[in-house]
# Entry
Amino acid sequence: MTGEVYYPHKELFKNPVFKNMCEYKEMVEEFEKDYEGTWAKLAREKITWFEDFKQTLDESNAPFYKWFVGGKLNVTYQCIDRHLESKKNKAAIIWEGDNGENKTITYLELYREVNKFANLLKSLGVKKGDRVVIYMPMIPEAAFAMLACARIGAIHSVVFGGFSAEALKDRIIDAKAKVVITADGAFRKGAPYMLKPTVDKALEEIDFVEKVIVVERNNQDIEWTHRDVSYNELIQNQPDECTPEIMDSEDPLFLLYTSGSTGKPKGVQHSQAGYILWAQLTMEWVFDIKDNDTFWCTADIGWITGHTYIVYGPLAAGATTVMFEGVPTYPDAGRAWKMIENYKINQFYTAPTAIRLLHKIGADEPKKYDLSSLRILGTVGEPIDPAAWKWYYDVVGNGRCSIVDTWWQTETGGHMISPLPAATPFKPGSATFPLPGIFAEVIDENGNKMPAQEKGLLCITKPWPSMIRTIWGDPERFVKSYFSTAKKNGKPVYFSGDGAIYDEDGYIWITGRVDDVINVSGHRLGTAEIEDAIKYHPEVAEVAVVGKPDEIKGESVFAYIVLKNPENIAQELEFIKEVNEIIKKEIGAIAKVDNFAFVPGLPKTRSGKVMRRILRAIAKGEEITQDTSTLENPQVVEEIIAIVNSCG
Ligand code: PRX
# Structure
């Protein structure tokens, strides 16, 4: 890992925050010299405070860090109100529907819509600190809903619309939501799809959800229960002024559930001030957002990328953000490029999976469109292979745009490691360097920096403002998940779960998760969750799942299954279909098994722990370097290898 070097086309950038690597280094040094002071300066410069904070960082109860202690603000004031004086008629959101229809919402309109929605929530009894689950398609009302919660201090928890009723139910229960906001459904690839029936199912055994607010989007028939209220009706009479709730810097802003290596998904809790500061700053630093820019992030709002880079970051920065209901491959492989041409998009942000797919189905497609408005192409969610990077750079970016390969996580709130578009020399496949203020380091568990080309743990060794504050309702799990793997100078540091390598020039190359998390098309899935679902099949005795490299998805799910009665399984494919139906019901279609092997047993240590590392190596077709002689059942490894090889 050293790679070719590409240099930014500086002429594309008029007044970037970082013009060159010297400026980057100066800022890094400023943080090294005066960590808290530099953060405090940025927070005072960027955030409109109702009341200034008294203390920048409170480490007294580490790792439960507090930032900008005593400060008062409202995130929606930062994202909307403060822009009204200079940009009330500027497009805040440009929305495009699946069928190509579009809508522009100005900052003034956004102000009104959010206030009306906030008043609607209040009229239903939602108060500061209440949890509101949002299960919505990609329509402007989803953004209004998030902001309306923030306006009144309710804590939103957006659940990706692709999750099943079971998964939704778990999240509603864990968050103990008072209200759920959903839609009848929406449109995808020219056809309606439904969300409301999934909510009904999720709520079957739940009695504490008081109301379900239903946005009517696709106007298909749905059942209306006693709990349901129509957004379209109720919103009509709401006043369009709602005084923003005065929030403390550390009050929770939202929860977002994500998979860990064990157990159920965890509710990652983010705060107000630190989160919004970093969402805005990274828009300025990494995306070089300027007043006349149109920014498009293709994520779904159900993921952290959608939170930070469709809603909060662009709006805090006073930018125009594009929100898209459909998929970039419908009606054809040119859809995304056509949208870039139409809206004259300046920054386009997507995942390597989408890049690989668009490359595969239409390598020359971008050339048919005028993509000259583009300045920055972003990627996120998984390592990008140099081949995909180069196509993105050469064909989509026409050999001139900066590619920002941004490494970060649900827990980090915003970008942590990324090139700066006008400054950093790029290496395809490397996320390059930590952003100023972010002490991301590749270390061993004792905090020693790894030498070049040796894999280590990707850790963040100082707290940062937009970091996860805790796991909702489970502070012990928070400490265990993130602060119990590595130490530096004797102090526990944040461990990301990823491995990484420095090259000789100090560039960071992310090698992927070292824990039991799989990254399918940039979606994070816990092996334990998938295994728990598969075990519902009555014929499954034991199962272990691992990630297998996949040309398009990055990783796909590989299941090693031990059957109770192998003779009962006549049709293997039928059986896997059944298994996938269960997964769809328990989690969602994204977690489905793509490859499987029926095996006589799983390799286990003498204490009964499944040795996944061995199973991962077999799925990847790698050599087993680990000593297997200490296993309880070493012979099974050879048997599994033979079975997997015979399956091809
Ligand atoms: O493994 C890393 C991978 O995605 C994980 C975080 O997933 P999630 O919390 O769902 O957030 C995804 C969007 C921020 C990380 O632990 N990942 C994310 N970005 C990159 C990446 N791997 C390599 N390169 C990236 N740029």
Notes: The domain at 521-647 is CATH 3.30.300.30 (GMP Synthetase; Chain A, domain 3).
